[in-house]
Design goal:
The complex is a heterodimer of chains A (357) and B (339). Chain A has 357 residues and is α/β, with parallel strands linked by helices. Chain A is built from 17 helices and ten strands. Chain B has helices at residues 3-23, 35-45, 50-93, 98-129, 141-147, 159-166, 169-214, 221-240, 243-265, 268-273, 279-330, 335-338. The longest helix of chain B is centred in the last third of the chain and has 52 residues, at 279-330. The chains are: A alpha/beta (357), B mainly alpha (339). At the A-B interface, helix 1, helix 5, helix 8, helix 9 and helix 11 of A face helix 1, helix 2, helix 3, helix 4 and helix 8 of B.
Chain lengths: 357, 339
């Protein structure tokens, strides 16, 4: 057998010495860091309901020359929406504001036991409906532009089908539509789970459970290898803060309201209702054909959570008369926090919305 | 980190450096005590979030394991280097090289096996930790139940309570039976799931070894580690897409969750006896709370709509009154007197 390494003993000793030095440096870096700060773009809360907050981020420039119709962003219930404003140079919200687009963002908060019976009707017809109402009142528009991210995209599709007159333009970002594509690993695994058993003491699906489930899709890369290569990420305070902000977001996973979670898994992961039809939210039938306004569907080429095929299925079932698809390189999160995404994604949104005032 | 802790870490680093150097020579310098690093991580944790503290501890743990494995490999490589030198001189005198080469290869082959085994162990520790179940699953059931705090004897210091609890013996027997059934399912499903992982581990080792034979060897230990991770993820992804794996994953998750849930709900009757609100009752309250909240919001919406309608109607009335007033005002005032 060949030796497993080309390194000599001397070189290996140097590598180990270097690794040990970097470990000590990392501990020093960590000890000098301030608390991690996220979501620092200037905003004000304009509406509150239960745990929910609707935050307004005003435009910081007037590129179009006239005030632009605001964009309401509906984020997923999984993880926190500050990923859209992680830090000043990785912030989709700031980038949109800089391009003259005022933004409203729904922050769902952290559901507790009092919220375990919230269902999809509460979220879509209730919370989203009320946020649209509040944002319309605040901005003096009758209809808004809507951007849904991941699960929030599925919610936005439902809402725009139920209240098409309230949605001027719809954008879906890394949004699952066909939950039964063969490459949708998350769907395969979640269909084997008995959600009823997974609900915790407070009747909700523990956020920790979700973090573990996502990590278990690449256990070694996201476990051993990440830990071992951590000193690389902690070389300087700036690098360390960048890394820790993302880490904080990954682990900051609120519990999911039990009933809504059960309903979402049943209607989408199990029954694939967007594709199979007969989707009902509350007591209302959801027909995606009802929304006929412009629709921009953005997905990521290497998305292992929502594979492109799962998003592209929207083309066949939407009623939009003005449907556009756009693929971005990168993965599920990289599409809006990756370095390239800071320029390309907001430019695309500005141009697409600008052409559809 | 204060200057004292920093100094300790620097001392630790100097000892490690000396140790690595000594392994290239006489090997007399002992490895530094990792406790200094672990202690620094613990001290640091007070100024970190729990997730950051866990990540820092995990980094130290991985680097410790990596360094320990690195030490074995370093010894093997050093021996190989020495053998090469002596072999060269031996060949020069006797022309016989086969025996020494075989020994060296065995050491390195062994080191690779140890590497795989080390990484499998590193990988499985966090996996079992995330199950959030006691470590003692392999112990006999009664010991396990005691450890879980499920024995009524736990209440001996509260005699009045023990009496109430004691009256629920048949209920307890039934619950214990259910838990025992769930434990059996848990144990069977874990066995099946472990088998899937053993297979992944085995395939990883095979692929790892195959790649080491077929490709140019990595230049560093870190690259060797990355190669192993690539091999693991490749096999893991293949397994993840199979029905068998998905079935065993689902079965194991459900058994684990079911066990966790039963443990949470175990004391419901006893909670009721001593005047606490059991989970079931609390859950019903939550359900009623939600219904009321929903109905309240719907009423609010209706009130809002009614207010809106009312305002609209009032505006129409005001407008009509204004029109009427205008008409009245425009009507000639002497019309009546003419009639």
């Amino acid at each position: 057998m060949k030796p497993p390494l080309t390194a000599t003993a001397q070189q290996l000793a140097e590598e180990l010495t270097d690794l040990n030095s970097r470990l000590v440096d990392s501990l020093q870096t960590l000890s000098q860091l301030p608390p991690v700060d996220v979501g620092t773009a200037s905003h004000q809360c304009i509406y509150r309901e239960d745990k929910l907050r609707l935050n307004f981020y005003p435009a910081t420039s007037n590129q179009a020359g006239t005030a632009q119709r605001p964009l309401l962003i509906v984020y997923a219930l999984i993880n926190r929406p500050y990923i859209l404003d992680l830090q000043p140079d990785r912030s989709l919200i700031r980038a949109l504001n800089q391009r003259g687009i005022p933004v409203y963002l729904i922050d769902w908060g952290y559901p507790d036991s009092a919220d375990c019976y919230l269902d999809l009707d509460d979220y879509i017809n209730g919370y989203i409906g009320n946020c649209v109402e509040a944002a319309c009142q605040h901005s003096d528009y009758d209809a808004l532009n809507l951007l849904g991210v991941c699960q929030g995209g599925a919610f936005s599709l439902c809402y725009s089908a139920l209240q098409p007159a309230r949605v001027n333009n719809l954008i879906t970002l890394v949004t699952p539509v066909d939950f039964h594509t063969p490459d949708n690993l998350l769907s395969h695994l979640s269909r084997k789970l008995d959600v009823e058993q997974a609900l915790g003491n407070n009747g909700n699906l523990p956020g920790k459970f979700l973090v573990q489930a996502f990590n278990s899709l690449m256990p070694m890369r996201l476990g051993l290898q990440k830990s071992l290569n951590l000193p690389q990420q902690l070389k300087s305070s700036e690098q360390a803060m960048n890394f820790l902000r993302m880490e904080q977001w990954i682990n900051d996973s609120p519990d999911l309201a039990g009933e809504a979670c059960r309903e979402f898994i049943d209607k989408f992961y199990h029954s694939n209702r967007f594709i199979e039809g007969q989707l009902e939210i509350g007591d209302q039938a959801v027909e995606l054909k009802n929304y006929q306004g412009p629709l921009l569907n953005i997905f990521a080429a290497r998305d292992h959570l929502v594979p492109p095929a799962a998003s592209k299925a929207l083309a066949a079932i939407t009623g939009s008369q003005d449907y556009t698809e756009q693929e971005f390189s990168g993965g599920h999160i990289g599409v809006f926090v990756g370095r390239h995404a800071q320029q390309q994604l907001p430019d695309l949104i500005r141009d697409w919305l600008g052409a559809r005032p | 980190m204060d200057s004292n802790q920093l100094e300790q870490l620097q001392q630790w680093l100097e000892s490690q450096k000396a140790h690595w150097q000594s392994l290239l020579g006489d090997g007399t310098s002992a490895p530094a005590d990792w406790q200094a690093v672990i202690q620094s991580c613990q001290n640091l944790s007070s100024q970190q979030t729990p997730d950051q503290a866990e990540l820092t501890a995990s980094m130290a743990q991985q680097i410790k394991g990596f360094s320990q494995y690195g030490e074995q490999l370093l010894r093997a490589l050093h021996q190989a280097d020495s053998t090469d030198s002596s072999k060269a001189s031996a060949e020069a005198t006797t022309g016989d090289s086969a025996k020494n080469t075989q020994n060296t290869d065995f050491e390195i082959d062994q080191a690779v096996k140890t590497f795989s085994s080390h990484l499998h162990q590193q990988a499985s520790e966090p996996f079992y930790r995330q199950l959030q179940l006691p470590d003692a699953m392999q112990q006999p059931l009664h010991q396990l139940l005691q450890q879980l705090g499920l024995s009524p004897s736990e209440f001996t210091s509260f005699p009045f309570l023990h009496q109430g609890v004691g009256s629920q013996q048949s209920d307890q027997r039934e619950k214990l039976l259910k838990i025992s059934q769930t434990l059996t399912e848990f144990s069977d499903s874990m066995r099946a799931y472990s088998k899937s992982h053993q297979q992944i581990n085995q395939l990883t080792s095979q692929l790892f070894s195959q790649k080491l034979h077929q490709q140019a060897p990595p230049g560093t230990l870190n690259e060797l580690h990355s190669l192993w991770v690539d091999c693991y993820e490749q096999n893991y992804q293949q397994q993840l897409h199979t029905d068998d794996y998905q079935h065993s994953y689902g079965r194991f998750c459900n058994a684990t969750l079911s066990l966790q849930k039963q443990l949470r709900h175990y004391w419901q009757n006893e909670q009721r006896i001593i005047g606490l609100v059991p989970y079931h009752d609390y859950d019903q309250l939550l359900q009623s709370h939600h219904k009321l909240r929903k109905s309240h919001k719907q009423s609010q919406q209706k009130v809002k709509q009614l207010l809106h309608d009312s305002t609209h109607q009032q505006q129409r009335i005001d407008a009509l009154e204004q029109q009427l007033q205008t008409l009245i005002n425009s009507y000639p005032t002497n019309t009546g007197s003419q009639h």
